Amino acid sequence: MDKILILDFGSQTTQLIGRRIRELGVYTEIIPGDADLAAVLADTEAGYSLRGLILSGSPESVYTPAGPVPDRRIYSCGLPLLGICYGLQRITVDNGGEVKPLAKREYGGVKVRVRSGGRSPGRPGKKKTEVFTAWMSHGDTLTKLAPGFVETGTSETGYPAVVVHREKPWYGLQFHPEVTHCERGMETLSSFVFGICGCKKSWTMEAHIEEVRASLAAKVGSAPVLLLISGGVDSTVAAALLLKILGPDQVYLMYIDTGLMRRGETGQVKTTLERLGARHLHILMAEDEFLSALKGKQNPEEKRKTIGDLFIRVQERELKRLGLPENYFLAQGTIYTDLIESGQGIGKKAHVIKSHHNVGSPLVDAKRREGRIVEPLDRLYKDEVRALGRILGISPSVINRHPFPGPGLGVRILGEVTKEKCAILREADAIFMEELKTRGLYDKIWQAFAVLLPIRSVGVAGDIRKYGWVLALRAITSSDGMTAGVYPFPSKDLLEISTRITNTVTDIGRVTYDISSKPPATIEWE
Ligand code: XMP
């Protein structure tokens, strides 16, 4: 399978480059921009052929010490190179050109005039000049091209926008073709990937399933594989994939109901997994254990730790009861973006350990040391995980489910968690979700939920004053949960939803809507 490698210098849009090229049907991988490329360029990974390299943008400047530098082997390996923004400036400076700061940063849509002559990415073929609106985000510009390069595109502001090497397959764009607002962006990437690198469309979900099948067969053989299920999209799709590839006899699934789940959640998880053919499905109902551990605990950090620690203890105890042989493998629903540290400048590929509660798990650590971890989704982006789930027959209601935190309702009941409060919140939250679905809003919102506040406020019921709990509704828009905006509800919807909640859940006296974005607020309240 053909592969394009992306050197990540820390741009916000590096991930988008990878996604866009995969949308074109070509496999991509992102690695740190300053990684040692000896092994990568030797191209020893079975089944993959490296066809070209893309150098991403960066928040840094090439002329500062912080500006990341790629392995110089990229300039002697003979593979096609495409530099985007900082990537272009990097290629320029590394090869004898010059880059200087602009008087004023250029950001957003800027018209560019591109003269094509058969070798320029974006327009191979006849000579012509085209003008389109490209998407820029740069504070530096090329002031002298590196020897061998010609300028084939210029911005209306007078800066080099496209440069091409006369002999080598090296290209540079000052703009960002990966951004959807960039006109001709997909065409530009497509002509680099297919026209220059000669890639064939070979990245399809079906092909990927076959690849996972081969690598699982080689790694796992006939040993049992245990997957811990949280009920979320990733672990459900991982279960479906393992069941399809290994068959139900080899796959063991374990799910712990902490009592902090949403209404009907455990039943839904069971039905989904059974429909997917699960045979060894171990569901543990541990509500009493979790609620008694949380008794009297008010502090958010203490609550989170209590839930996380107990989860690990219960999991270990149940595993012993399962009695799997020592050589069993642990599967995780880690996805591609979990492997890339976010917000850290250069995207170092850190192996993030994904557990239900995002805490270090001795089991995961031990299995990783033994080399007995399998992560069948670790090459997929979230939208690809969803696409795979659809192919594997998982219902849209499961695939499109909003994220749910590991500690569950435990962090949505502020202050002490009790069985009664869980019941109140569960009912209110279920009404909120049902209303969002019937109003056609659920899929427009990235995450929505209700939070039970630790205050009672006065109200009237008939002739008597009554103190009811205060409920906060939260609904946010986001693309990855790292930042979030408030979902702008039509007020009619909010008013009707609030009325239904207070009419149905009589312990709730008042409903508020959280209008805080992230940052400064977080998505969850605790
Ligand atoms: P915050 O509250 O940090 O949430 O803005 C970002 C996203 O992460 C989810 N979240 C968690 N997920 N374990 C999880 O698996 C946790 O402890 C946890 N805390 C928050 C949150 O729901 C949101 O989607």
3D structure, described in words:
With 526 residues, the chain is of the alpha/beta class. Helix content is 31%, strand content 26%. The chain has a 9-stranded mixed sheet, sandwiched between helices. A 5-stranded parallel sheet has the order 12-11-10-13-14, with helices on both faces. Helix 6 packs across helix 11 and helix 13 runs antiparallel to helix 14. The longest helix has 23 residues, at 300-322. The structure holds xanthosine-5'-monophosphate.
Write the layout of secondary structure elements.
Layout: E1 2-8, H1 14-23, E2 27-32, H2 38-42, E3 49-55, E4 81-84, H3 86-94, E5 98-116, E6 128-144, E7 149-155, E8 160-165, E9 170-173, H4 185-196, H5 205-220, E10 225-229, H6 233-246, E11 251-257, H7 265-275, E12 280-285, H8 287-294, H9 300-322, E13 329-331, H10 362-370, E14 373-374, H11 382-391, H12 396-399, H13 419-438, E15 447-461, E16 464-477, E17 485-486, H14 491-504, E18 508-513
Parallel strand pairs: 1-2, 1-3, 3-4, 4-9, 10-11, 10-13, 11-12, 13-14, 16-18
Antiparallel strand pairs: 5-6, 5-7, 7-8, 8-9, 15-16, 16-17
Bound molecules: xanthosine-5'-monophosphate.
Q: Estimate the mean pLDDT confidence.
A: 92
CATH H-level name of the largest domain... which superfamily?
A: Class I glutamine amidotransferase (GATase) domain
| Ligands, ions, cofactors | xanthosine-5'-monophosphate
**Order of strands across the widest beta sheet?**
2-1-3-4-9-8-7-5-6
Question: Which descriptors apply to this entry?
Answer:
526 residues; alpha/beta; Rossmann fold; GMP Synthetase, Chain A, domain 3; 3 domains; nine-stranded mixed β-sheet; 14 helices; 18 strands; globular; binds xanthosine-5'-monophosphate
